[in-house]
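Continuing the batch. This is chain 6 of the set; chains 1 through 5 are on the previous pages. Same settings as before, nothing changed between runs. Recording input and output for traceability.
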Amino acid sequence: MRAWSVAIQLVTTRAFQTTKAFRPRALTPALTSALSVSTTATDNMCKTTAISEGNPLLQSWASQPFHLPPFEEINPSHFQPALEAAMEAHIADLEAIASSTDNDFDSILGAYDRAGSLYSKVGGVYGNYISSLNMPDMQEVQSAMAPILSRHRTKCYNIPGLFEKVTSMYEIREEMANKGEWTAEQVRLAERVYTAFVRMGVKLNEEEKKEYGDIQVELATLQTKFMQNILKDEETWKMVISAEDMAGCPEDLVAAARQAAIDRGHEGEDEYVITLGRSLVEPFLTYSTRRDLRKKAFDAWTSRGELSEERDNLSIATKILRLRKRQANLMGHTTFSNFQTEDTMAQTPENVMNLCMDVWERAKEAANKERAMMESFLSDKGDELEGGIQPWDWRFYAEQVRQANFNFDESELKPYLSLDAVTNAAFDVSNKLYGLKYVKRDDIKAYHKDVNVYEVRRGDEDELVAIFLHDNFSRAHKSSGAWMSEYRTQTKNLPAGADPIEGIPIVSNNNNFAKGSGATLLSSDDSTTLFHEFGHGHHGMLSDATYEYLASTSVLKDFVELPSQLMEHWFEEPVVLKEHAKHYKTGEVVPDELLARLKAASLFNEGFATVEYTACALLDMAVHSLSEYGEDFDLSAFEKKYLAEIGMPQGIVMRHRPAHFAHLFASSSYASGYYVYQWAQVLDNDVFAAFQETGDVFDAATAERCRRFIYSAGNTVAPQDLFKAFRGRDPDTSFFLKNKGMA
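Output for chain 6:
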């Protein structure tokens, strides 16, 4: 299966969660921690109480099941006043730490981890709404709040006296560990908090600090606009066609296109709609016999972010690049790529490029062989294709060759992969590996009628582990791609008197599957996406850290995709498919011979998938490694020139072209970091090999080690040490290359 071909759909629009220092975290009964009960904090609490009347975001959620947000009461007008009140309370918390005469670990770092409970409560909902329910009035709030939230984030790192408190803890960490007075996790917390402050520019002089803060504000505004432009293009573009125009398309795709037409007000008897949602446009490019319509859909899909002169994402991206370069310069780096990779497993751009270029050369060779196979197929049929195989042709002819050479048609498999069947398979894998049980709560209403809510329990006593929200369908005003987020993060560091439920995570998975008029049928890629995001979900649900700052997915970015990509492997296992892949109409179990054909065809077109991903990773690192972006810098020209230099195979384009490359330009999280999926693939293939070596992919002892070192540890231990603790050695790339067919 093309692991990263779906993994890279992860959307990074969780702008509110750009740093674990001030990411949304659990609500506590008190608006501020016990430490914060000073005159300032008490005054602030009174102000917040006054503002909270009538605003569900600021009121207690104790009456809600599991202290979930009161979704049915929330509307966009509530967010700005709630965020403003929450920011004020957050500053009061931090000022109380800075001014406190107590200088022990809990009074400084423990309190820092607890600070901003109201900010996290409100922000957890806000961050999810701007990704999953970003209606026009919500977008207005987002645009207004982006610079304000950025200013707040900068201010939080520059509270007078706060960094001095953090530094005092950092400087004694080894001494306290040697004395046995601090745990290893406390040492790690001191190191990670100190690093975050330094990377936010607290050591700069006052003039530089102001400039650094101004850069962050401008970046927040531009990145918000970049994402909203993509969203608008995806909302407004549609290709209305007839049943005749859908020649070659399988029944489930025709049904999904019909449903998309109805959803968008095209209710004529012979009206069908193809949107720019991946779950509609990719199958259309794969099966449609209409080359002209494939080209029309492909051109629009690959031009998101530049479909309208009013939404010029290329100029926005160029401004972002210049700002990031200046940000890096202020921090003593020549390029942004040097600054970004400094705090990663890779450590340097050179290490990233060494891995990616090694894979790139192998992938190009494989892709060129695949194109040759398609050209031979056309020649054997006596067909001539004007201009040769173009990007809008590749998926179509690759599918033709797959059917001809491997006797495998993806549409044969889809009836066995209903959304319900794949979801149940994922739940069953979770249970067999980690003992988790999922109890659906139809009585709990979320923010949209399509969202399912589950209790996640474990053990004979049904211990509550997490609350899980599953939002699977594409719709207007929802970001494209797939992602995991949290409304509340796991922690044991609760204030005195807090309800323990506040330490239980609320985890959400978002997908963008095309909703069928009846059963929703998934492709193998869609199914892998579901498992991928479920892996991220496990990172949150199985988290077992003392401090929220180190919990869940707060790991270095080139480790964060290991838990997600690892989970993908179980979808491919015949033992899982034989138990759960059943025909949605007849209940027939997927035939062994179909699975055999699936396996035989699984590596075909892997060159294409690897090329379109790796080209993105290489361009990301290359464009962020420039030391200058002159007035005449043209991002499109750079894209064209760079791809030519590295030998981009004919007929393939980047999976994410610059104008809609949200990973790079909708936030800074994955900028100079898109390589992480490939880096993590080295890790996940090695980890899964440990299960295979036991002869049982559900081996209990291996699963327990995996839970402990991969899913539960968060950032309590350095990622390279976690991997070594699990595997007993450093990573081995041979498993990755073998599974990609590139050994």
